Amino acid sequence: MTDFNLRYESYLSTFENYLNGYAAKLHTKPEILGESMKYSLQSGGKRIRPVLALACADVAGVAAEEILPFALALEMIHTYSLIHDDLPAMDNDDFRRGKPSCHKAFGEANAILAGDALLNEAYAICFTECLKGEKQVLASQFLNECAGAYGMIAGQSADLASSSSTNEPTETELEYIYEHKTGKLLLAPVMLASLLSDDKRYLPFERFGKLLGVLFQMTDDILDVTGEFDKLGKTLGKDETENKLTCVRLYGLEGAKIRADMCAKDCHAVLEGIDGDVQFLSDLIDYVLARSK
User: Fold this and answer.
1) For position 231, what pLDDT does the model report?
2) pLDDT tens, position by position, 169-206
3) Is domain 3-290 in CATH 1.10.600.10, yes or no?
4) Which of 4, 34, 189, 250 has the greatest CB tally within 10 Å of its CB?
5) DSSP structure string for 209-235
6) In this structure, are residues 258 and 206 in contact, taking their beta carbons and an 8 Å threshold?
7) How many Å separate Cα 70 from the centre of its chain?
8) Is the Cβ–Cβ distance between 285 and 215 less than 8 Å?
9) By the 8 A CB rule, do 114 and 33 touch?
10) CB 192: neighbour CB atoms within 10 A?
11) Domain boundaries, the chain
12) DSSP-assigned states of every residue in 58-86
C-alpha cells in the first residue's frame, strides 16, 4: 500500500470512528427516521470531503478534534443532497453506492424526511460549535453559504433548468453548475480548515478548492460514460438520457478528458505556492483524475 493510500485510510478511519460515535447516539421516535438517516449516512463511499477536511487541517495546523464536527456536518449535508437527488422528482436513481437508494429502501416520504433531518442535524452541530468562538462562527457561516440558495442548491436548480432547456448549452452555464452543484461542497472542507486556523494561505486554499471541485465533477461526467456499475454503485448513462449539461456533452469525451488533465495541472500549480507538507493533497489530485469510482 502506498503512502497516499495509508494516509487516506488513516483519515478515513478517523472520520468513520467519529461518525459511528454520533450514529450510536442517534435514537429517534419513530425508529424508522433514525434508521433511514443512518442507512444513507453509514453507507460507505470515498468520504472525500471529510478526508479533504482532515488533510487540509493538517496543512493549516488545525487539530483533528476541531475539524471533525464540521467534517461530520458537511458529510450530513452531502448525504442529504444525495438522498434528495435520487428521488423520482430529481435524478430518479434506484441505486447509491451499490445499494438501493434511500427511497427504494424506506419509501419516498421517509427518504425526504431522512434528508431533512440530516440537514437540520448538520446545522445543530454548527450551532453547538459556534458557542466555542469566532472562528467556529465563520466556519459555520461559510458552510451554510456553500450548501444553500447561493451554493449547492443553486447549482442543483441550474442543473435542472439546463436539462429542460431547448437553448444551445454554453460554457458559462456549465461553469456555473460545476462551481455550485459540486464545487461548493468540495471548496467547503478546504476553507473550513483555513478558517479554523490562523493560516495566511486563504487565497491559495480557495483557488485549490475551487479547481478540485471542477476536476471532481469533470471526472464524474466522464465516468458516467466510461465507468462500471460495480465500481460506481449507481446507474450509468443517465446524463445523456436526461439531457444533462456536462463537459462530455459540450466538448465530447476526448475533449473532456483533455480539460480534466489541464484542470489537474492547474491544481498542482496552486499547491506549489502553498507552504507546508502538501504531498497528500498533490496525490489526491491524481487520485481524483484517475478514479474509477
Assistant:
1) 57
2) 899 999 999 999 999 999 999 999 999 997 678 899 99
3) yes
4) 189
5) HHHHHHHHHHHHHHHHHH--HHHH-S-
6) no
7) 13
8) yes
9) yes
10) 32
11) 3-290
12) HHHT--HHHHHHHHHHHHHHHHHHHHHHT
Which spans in the chain are helix H? Answer: 3-24, 31-41, 48-60, 64-85, 102-106, 108-130, 134-147, 152-164, 171-177, 183-195, 202-226, 229-232, 238-241, 247-271, 279-290
Amino acid in the structure at residue 134: E
The SS3 call for residue 93 is coil
169: cell is 448549452
Contact present, 151 and 184 (Cβ < 8 Å): yes
pLDDT of residue 232: 61
For residue 221, give the C-alpha cell. Answer: 461526467
Instruction: Extract the C-alpha cell encoding 229.
Output: 456499475
**CA–CA dist 53, 58 (Å, integer):** 9
Q: What is the pLDDT of residues 127-173, one digit of tens each?
A: 999 999 999 999 999 999 999 999 999 999 999 998 888 788 899 99
